[in-house]
Design goal:
The protein is an alpha/beta fold. It is about 45% helix and about 15% strand. Strands 1-2-3-4-5-6-7 form a seven-stranded parallel sheet. The radius of gyration is 19 Å and the shape is globular. The protein starts with a helix and ends with a helix.
Length: about 260
């Protein structure tokens, strides 16, 4: 895995997204060491990781977990640090206060230079408002599941109006056959892949897609986005949206409740 990350950097990727809960920080750290030993500067790569709120969690726990993440990565700071999810299991009655405590500590960590940017992941509008009403700053980033069949248009637009950059995880997670067919029609028009269409769509509507592949050919292909989707193409993809086409991860229904 570390070798694949090195290859990705060598072909032009400069953003690495990981998380404490993924268990991949040490692998990223090993890849970074190889690159830095070979002469790459720290400021040539953007590293993002995430705080995983395991009960019980609060501001003190975020500082401890960040120190462990930095040790795993072999870094003095990360470029971006996110709260991984707003409503962890068993925190439904007190998640608001806990998130506020975590966010205030993250503001301090940014002021200290241990992180350059702070944000959230999988937060709905109300979760963001709970933070901004109690804290000094608005999240700089919200990382959301967004792809042609699950577009979260209202939430993404809310974020943009607040000045929050939208990152898209799972941008290629299209399982619906009709959506696949719609993407294929557009892909054929430009002689590109469906994945390239999905990535280009995300970029053109103002999001930053985060994708992953173990296939070096796909890694190279996914960077070749030198085409422009027409208004007709964008409308065709817009019509692919479904409110319930998200991955069946447990936190979605729980977020709807809290």
């Amino acid at each position: 895995m570390a070798a694949l990350l090195v290859q990705a950097i060598l072909i032009g990727y400069r953003f690495i997204d990981t998380a404490y809960s993924y268990g991949t920080e040490k692998i990223v750290g090993a890849a970074l060491k190889l690159l830095f030993d070979a002469g790459m500067r720290r400021d040539e790569v953007f590293i993002q990781t995430k705080f995983y709120p395991v009960m019980p969690y609060d501001g003190e726990s975020v500082r401890k977990q960040l120190e462990e993440s930095l040790q795993n990565l072999g870094l003095d700071y990360v470029d971006s640090y996110l709260i991984h999810q707003p409503v962890p299991r068993y925190s439904e009655l007190e998640y608001t206060e806990r998130n506020i405590s975590v966010w205030k500590e993250m503001e301090k960590l940014r002021a200290e230079g241990k992180v350059k940017h702070i944000g959230v992941s999988n937060f709905l509008e109300r979760h963001i408002l709970q933070l901004t009403e109690a804290c000094n700053t608005v999240p700089e980033i919200n990382q959301l599941e967004i792809n042609p069949q699950f577009q979260q248009r209202g939430l993404a637009e809310f974020c943009r109006k607040k000045g929050i950059a939208v990152q898209s995880w799972g941008p290629l997670s299209v399982t619906d056959e009709d959506v696949q067919s719609a993407l294929q029609l557009i892909a054929d028009k430009y002689s590109v892949s469906k994945a390239q269409v999905a990535l280009k769509w995300n970029i053109q509507i103002g999001n930053t897609p985060i994708c992953f592949s173990k296939n070096i050919h796909h890694l190279i292909e996914n960077r070749k986005l030198d085409f422009e989707l027409s208004d007709e193409d964008l409308e065709a993809i817009r019509m692919c949206n479904s409110a319930d086409a998200h991955r069946k991860t447990w936190w979605y229904p729980r977020q709807q409740m809290y």
